[in-house]
Design brief:
Largest sheet: 8 strands, parallel, barrel
Oligomer: single chain
Number of strands: 37
Bound molecules: alpha-L-arabinofuranose
Strand content: 25-35%
Distance between the termini: 29 Å
Low-confidence stretches: 1-22
Strand order of the largest sheet: 3-15-18-19-20-21-22-23
Mean pLDDT: 95
Helix content: 10-25%
Number of helices: 11
Length: 672
Amino acid sequence: MINSLFNRFILTVSLSFTAFGTAAQDNLMVIDAGKKGIPVQETMYGLFFEDINYAADGGLYAEKVKNRSFEFDDPFMGWNIFGNVTVCDDGPFERNPHYVRLAYPGHPAFVTGLENEGFFGIGVEEGKAYRFSVWARTSGAKEKEMISFRLCKNATMGEDQAFCRGYIEVDSREWKKYEAVITSPVTEAKASLRIFLEHLSPDQGVDLEHISLFPVETFNGHENGLRKDIAEALQQLKPGVFRFPGGCIVEGTTLETRYQWKNSVGPVENRPINMNRWNYTFPNRLYPDYFQSYGLGFYEYFLFSEEIGAEPLPVISCGLACQFQNDPATDPHASLDELDPYVQDALDLIEFANGDAGTKWGKIRAEMGHPEPFNLKYLGVGNEQWSELYPERLVVFMEAIRRQYPDIKIIGSSGPYRDGKDFDELWAAMRELDVDLVDEHYYAEESFFENNADRYDGYPRKGPKVFAGEYACHGVDGKKWNHFNAALLEAAFMTGLERNADVVLMASYAPLLAHVEGWQWRPDMVWFDNLHVMRTCSYYVQQLYACNKGTKVLPLTMNGRPVAGKEGQNQLYASVVKDSAKNEYIVKVANLSSDSREISICFTRLPRRQKLAPEVCCTTLHSDNSLAENTLDKPDQIVPTTSHIADGLKDNNFTTVIGPKTFAVYKLTYSE
Ligand code: AHR
């Protein structure tokens, strides 16, 4: 009865719209403002972080020295050496035992020293301070030694390659940490760091370990901190959740090479490195010098989550080595009776994040500088897993975690594919196990994003919820890069994520970061070089959603159906949220057509106490060229623009024209 009255009301409203012309009437979007609405989760929209494309070492992690502890397979990878430099392996850090000995080169006119190439060079900026640090001891007859360090530009016509230098007196035969801060007089993207033993005589020498160079100015000023410009770009996305440390690196090509979070905490000098699987996984983009220093480790991930206001979401190995790379017949995985240490890692991780300072792992967190718990709520177990091997392992984790930490929400996997037999079987298994959320991944072609904005409309409302943990539009026919059309399609598809706020509780575009000289996978949301950051069109789509996520989703329909680009919907996609804190209705509309569309947005059943203001704020993302992209040289080619339509709203209706190939966010405020 109420429904039929409501429908009659809509009919009346739509008939009264003929004044706006056929197009507006054809594209009449009706918002039922009388509904309570579905709560929007705080965890929408999120970030997926993985050390791929030099996202951590060489990227977000601000360290500028590569192979700082001489622990790569080739201890001198990333270094040039001159004179008498040898590698020793009885250093002060048991899990990183290598260091270098600098000694007399055989003649006082020779030199002894070494030079680090950084990550595709070392980027420094004019007027900015950099902290050089090193663990050192004298190894010769003398108690004191002098070393110099220099920032150099090797390809210069200047008299001196060094443009900045500092000195450190090593004054003990015992290992000690030394530091010196220098200020760069120039901006240089590809400097090198040279270190010399200053005074040369046969009885002199010095040992150096963990040679490091950091900008003093990091995100929030942490010493072992993050590159400020990249971190700020991520913070400006206002993420609701931060998933780390991957991706495939969680699993490992072999179990030995999986990400082991315990190796990533404690003093940074003693965190053992791991070869990064993105070093070799795509031999067509080979990066033999790609290792994980774990300088950006779990403590730093938790801290960053806290500082950007995102829920931390660690993912841990479930005892399965990467299933893409391993034939189960070769027995690469942990068997069920070998799972204990993996499960213990999960339990200890929760204690590390949430335990008080009196617990074993809580104490380590407190000693690292965070006595308060990190308030971990979510844990992913396994990344892209499949076959019966996964549920039979996951259940072991679930029982142990729920026994000890019943409040932790567990995220299971639906495998690497967006549909199909494995996907269906995994979802069935996840329902049976009653996980809290299921991680879905879809790196998909244009047509998937165009046709699936209703993907979640029919999902069961009971049982596990969805974490759309990795997705991105991958253009076909050579368009697999960050161009505008891909972002527009993502925007259209995301109306369906927003509409289904009771099913999709988290969503994160992937991958997040890429160094322009070191990428293995694209598209990616944010690109950078040693000095600059570039936000892609996909970044702006994510930001427009995250900064306008509202508090409740309301029904919005066209011809009685959700607006999901279906037949008769003129390639339009739309969703609406209300923000009760800001007194706003926020309507998102994507027009995939090459023609502009007149649309009418009509508010029905508006609570009597609410009065909508006539002015409408309109933010659009558009490019005349679907293949256009932002670049490091021109990072602002395609950015959102905002305008205000003074008397946009009349009689609770807003009629406007959305341009071709445009994503628009309309904000209407109300008083009550
Ligand atoms: O995001 C890149 C990779 O894609 C992730 O590591 C993995 O989970 C997926 O296959």
